[in-house]
Amino acid sequence: MSDEGYEMQYVQEAFDTNWIAPLGNNVNKFEQEFCDKIDSQAALALSSGTSAMHLALKADGVGVGDIVFCQSLTFAASVNPVIYQNATPVFIDSDYKTWNMFPEVLEEAFEKYTPKAVIVVHLYGLSADMDRILEICNKYNVSVIEDAAESLGSYYKDKHTGTLGDYGVYSFNGNKIITTSGGGMLVSNKEERIEKARFWASQARDKARHYEHSELGYNYRLSNVLAGIGRGQLKVLDKRVEKKKYIFEYYKKELSDLPGVQFMPINEWNTPNYWLSCMLLTGEVRPLDVIEALEEESIEARPLWKPMHLQPYYKEYDFIGEGVSDELFKNGVCLPSDTKMTDEDLERVIGIIKSLW
Ligand SMILES: *Cc1c(COP(=O)(O)O)cnc(C)c1O
User: What Gene Ontology biological process does one annotation of this record name (predicted)?
Assistant: First the structure.
């Protein structure tokens, strides 16, 4: 996944300075460069997006018995940390306009519950309807945690997704737009909360010569070597977004006229990173037909995320909505979207898909 080879330079630096350890110059620089890139006050580099979500909830004071609203259409890592904190998720439906949290349903949910926090996700690099969501959450004085794991490089109006709410969570897992093989970032403009999260992430060691702990800690920091990879990757983010957009527009131009095909929604206030090119199929050709036809040629395509309220583990928790996320799941396909794809690769995928009509 290296485009320019900056990664090796920073990794080498970690070796040269003998910082094959958690923390060190690359970690500090990665946090700083990340803040500069997305225009945030403070950032904390962590071992995963999941650990970033966990510490966001903890920093926000979410604990035993608290209710947390979470978008249902997402990857399980958005909500699992709610359970780590012994809190209770309530799932909120998506809206066709954004594929993300449905503001009207969110309002409805506030009439039924008093949550401690709201987790909104920017799936596939599309941004949620943040003005409306923030307006509702501000009215009830409830914190907003943005799961921007899939949306690094996406803007809502002139702001980076992940910097509009109280906390932003990013992932550098292998499948994301930039990767450190595994890693994450927690950002916030509440610098003191980020410092507190930094303390918890490094085993909650009190300031003492001996090992003293007055709080529960975690081993969640990103290593200095992986942070070096992250610094190199951050430099190629814009180039990746450009290529992802090219891929999306290529598919859209070739496939959007087929009956029953509808591409993911790009709203006027959204400049996406086009992490994955996704479409809905509502005609005779079903998502599974596309997935299987591509699979026969050893090409991977996938359904959209299966909503959390349909997951066996989460079936006992409340869901508020009208089944939009169920429909999106039923009809959606994520197309191959790797930035290494050539025009030839794209033509091949398009040819296989068109042959089904
Ligand atoms: C990848 C992902 C995460 C989790 O990130 P990890 O770094 O894999 O822990 C969380 N939420 C969403 C929406 C994701 O896609």
Answer: polysaccharide biosynthetic process
